[in-house]
Amino acid sequence: METTPDPNAARDTLRAAERAAAAPFVDYPPTPVWYPPALGGWFAILSAIMVYRPGPAVSVPLLVVLIALVGAFMAWHSRVRGTLPTLTGAPKELHRPMYGYAAGVVVIVAVVVPVGLFAPPIAAVIATFVLVTIGIAAYERAYFRAAQAVKERLA
Length: 155
What we know:
Blueprint: H1 7-26, H2 35-52, H3 56-81, H4 95-118, H5 121-154
């Protein structure tokens, strides 16, 4: 007796594989409200070190603390989300927010560097805090919307 293959079985298997591959990018708890201002503050401190140039006795310990904070953040982020966002393997809907993030970094640098060179140092620190905080919040919203689109497509 010959069995006829189920034409839906292959499609269902492929969809299940796509859902599993997308899960680390779209199944995660919401970003805490403190996340954008914390990153804005981190970059503002880095900006302050660069524009005020306090000397090695102050700048080296501050940089060590900032690097330690990055390590702690990466560990937390990996634990909470299960992955770090990369374009490799990310669902296509997430590419636009990720490229937007990269473009935002370029815009922030293009604004902050001239401010740091030609305005009072505090202006660069404030600009860094405000732009990074707003940029991260915008990225998080765009990423959330794109993740929802992935979930809808794979439902």
